[in-house]
């Protein structure tokens, strides 16, 4: 069965694009390479993604959304706000670290792509801080957390923990005491939120 | 009076090196350029700094030490631990922001130099976290701060505030609400330290 006998969906194009980026690197990957990998014409790819830039933005969004999806599932579980915050920050760190460690070349590729897709990254960060705002708000409602402006406090939590999710810190994630560093910052942040 | 009539001190060489780096950029600046700027032979420069790498390390240390000196003076003033911590973090942010904003080219030059001088940067960070440890310890002694391990807590404070001193975030320092972002993180950190 040739690849063309399957329906050409946006998702199949994005999968192939990631594979092409992995193989050729972000500088050399072209739409023609993607079309060739799928056994279709480049016109078929352009029918789904109008330009190469749009395709690169979409594949970046797909990569970032994979992190958000894990965390959304977690946020839906039944935890108290403090446990949920700890679990959420640990899951975010774990997801980023896994991406950086499991496939360093693909991670480096996406670091180039995120730099050229500021808007997609901005939307990703807004997604994450929205989830954090929801956790902070739940804690305020239950009387466990103090925050006059949950959105601003959530952003402060996101900034204070940047060392453990900002890809710029990926080299630090291999430090032998990185877990202890993470725990110490989370402890400081959780204590800062508590009404006590 | 020709420049050579002054005594050739290490400090004069470092001053000239910074000027040469500013003019030629980190890739092109040579020891011969430094010697020429001082009106001396390159041998005279090498008598103070054995190699070009040693000279580049020393000029990087001098640049970083300027930040530390301001903060050391502040730490000697008579403040309560919480006020001192707030003032220290604000002074660190201000010093870094001033360096980045006043002379962006020199700042970019030193970003290249710090990347090639990991040890010098490590010592600078150790200096800063030592000062923070002293502040945390004073707060623990006075009963205002809770910390079982002041050095670990100081490091957590340093990591939690990285957005406001790590040069990797220099582009974010121009955001219109960066002061509010800073205040929100400092508030979270100070609340996290308080015994209350």
From TrEMBL, chains A, B:
InterPro entries: DNA-bd_HTH_TetR-type_CS, Homeodomain-like_sf, HTH-type_TetR-like_transc_reg, HTH_TetR, Tet_transcr_reg_TetR-rel_C_sf, TetR_C_27
Coiled coil residues, start to end: none
Residue spans binding DNA: 30-49
PROSITE patterns cross-referenced by the UniProt entry: HTH_TETR_1 (PS01081), HTH_TETR_2 (PS50977)
Domain named HTH tetR-type: residues: 7-67
Keywords: DNA-binding, Transcription, Transcription regulation
PANTHER family: HTH-TYPE TRANSCRIPTIONAL REGULATOR RUTR, TRANSCRIPTIONAL REGULATORY PROTEIN
Name by which UniProt lists this protein: TetR family transcriptional regulator
């Amino acid at each position: 069965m040739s690849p063309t006998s399957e329906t050409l969906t946006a998702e199949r194009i994005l999968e192939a694009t990631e594979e092409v980026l992995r193989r050729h690197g972000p500088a050399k990957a072209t739409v023609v390479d993607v079309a060739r990998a799928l056994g279709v014409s480049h016109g078929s790819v352009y029918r789904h993604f109008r330009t190469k830039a749009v395709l690169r933005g979409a594949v970046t969004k797909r990569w970032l959304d994979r992190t958000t999806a894990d965390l959304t599932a977690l946020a839906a579980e039944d935890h108290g706000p403090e446990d949920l915050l700890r679990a959420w920050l640990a899951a975010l760190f774990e997801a980023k670290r896994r991406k950086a460690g499991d496939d360093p070349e693909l991670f480096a590729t996406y670091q180039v792509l995120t730099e050229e897709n500021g808007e997609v990254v901005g939307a990703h960060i807004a997604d994450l801080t929205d989830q954090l705002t929801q956790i902070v708000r739940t804690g305020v409602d239950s009387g466990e957390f103090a925050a006059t402006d949950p959105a601003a406090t959530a952003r402060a939590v996101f900034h204070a923990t940047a060392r453990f999710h900002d890809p710029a810190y990926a080299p630090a994630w291999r430090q032998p005491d990185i877990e202890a560093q993470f725990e110490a910052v989370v402890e400081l942040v959780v204590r800062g939120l508590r009404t006590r």
